[in-house]
Design brief:
The complex is a heterodimer of chains A (125) and B (142).
Chain A (H helix, E strand, L loop, with lengths): L2 H23 L9 H30 L6 H22 L5 H25 L3
Helix pairs in contact in A: 1-2, 1-4, 2-3, 3-4
Chain B lengths: L1 H10 L3 H27 L4 H23 L2 H27 L20 H15 L10
Helix pairs in contact in B: 2-3, 2-5, 3-4, 4-5
Classes of the chains: A mainly alpha (125), B mainly alpha (142).
Chain lengths: 125, 142
């Protein structure tokens, strides 16, 4: 796996988590009409693009090496793409600070899945 | 049906919305895990993998039940959370006492240790949330 990409994505997710926690503390709902919230969502969009790049590099690596990773790794590569779109939709449908809480869950899940992918890739799963 | 939709809104608002998000993550994790186990090597540990499938189904039902939040859906969610609590306690205990029955881990092995013990907390939180949102008088934080 491309370590630099994983670290960058993890870093961006943790920034989003911190941002969402600030919103929870300030009881601020997640609103598409707020410019600041759109910047936060754009950040998540960037992470999603990075996850797509990870999908491509992941499959290329799977095809070009004989590492022990197989179906589990492939399912992780695809599955992690669902988290942010689903989380964002579920968060935006709420009119309270719970929306930011949902983003925390989503943005903690993504790095956790990336970490698991590294474990699966290196064979200590 | 104003009462019904108010109940549904209450169930999926505030903390409930965050709880449903965590449930959805576990529904995805358990379903994906089961698919991989069954496709790759079902014969290695049929009991563990069947239990993975049961866990996956229960997480999916609990997620959908809480997210829909109507009267009937809440009953489905309550049942799923109860089965889940019994399952995680039973499998959690058995996996310590009879490890040879579980050559491969399930979501519920060792009370969900592999998932930061979240699997043992989730059904408790789910049942508490259902109780708290049952009547309109209960305050819903948000």
């Amino acid at each position: 796996m491309v370590l630099g990409l994983s670290l960058a994505l993890t870093g961006l997710c943790l920034v989003a988590v911190a941002w969402a926690v600030v919103k929870i503390v300030r009881r601020s709902p997640l609103l598409w009409s707020s410019t600041a919230d759109r910047v936060l969502l754009a950040l998540l969009g960037l992470v999603e693009l990075g996850l797509l790049a990870q999908l491509v590099t992941g499959f290329v690596l799977m095809a070009s090496t004989d590492a022990p990773a197989g179906l589990t790794f492939a399912v992780y590569l695809v599955g992690v793409l669902l988290i942010l779109p689903a989380g964002t939709a579920w968060a935006l449908a709420d009119r309270s600070r719970a929306g930011a809480g949902v983003l925390v869950v989503a943005c903690v899940t993504v790095p956790a899945m990336i970490l698991r992918m590294h474990q699966v890739w290196s064979g200590d799963a | 049906m104003p009462d019904r939709s108010a109940l549904a809104t209450r169930t999926r608002s505030g903390l409930g919305r965050v709880l449903i998000a965590v449930y959805a993550v576990f529904a995805l994790a358990a379903t994906a895990r089961t698919l991989v186990q069954v496709v790759e090597r079902f014969e290695v540990a049929p009991l563990a993998f069947t239990l993975s499938g049961v866990a996956a189904l229960v997480y999916c039902l609990a997620t959908a039940g809480l997210a829909r939040g109507g009267r009937g859906s809440r009953r489905v969610a309550w049942l799923s959370c109860t089965v889940e609590l019994v399952g995680v306690l039973a499998i959690g205990t058995l996996s310590w006492v009879r490890p040879e029955w579980f050559p491969e881990a399930t979501v519920w092995s060792h009370f969900g240790q592999g998932y930061g013990f979240v699997p043992v907390l989730l059904p408790v939180l789910g049942l508490l949330w259902l109780r708290r949102t049952a009547s309109p008088a209960a305050p819903v934080s948000g």
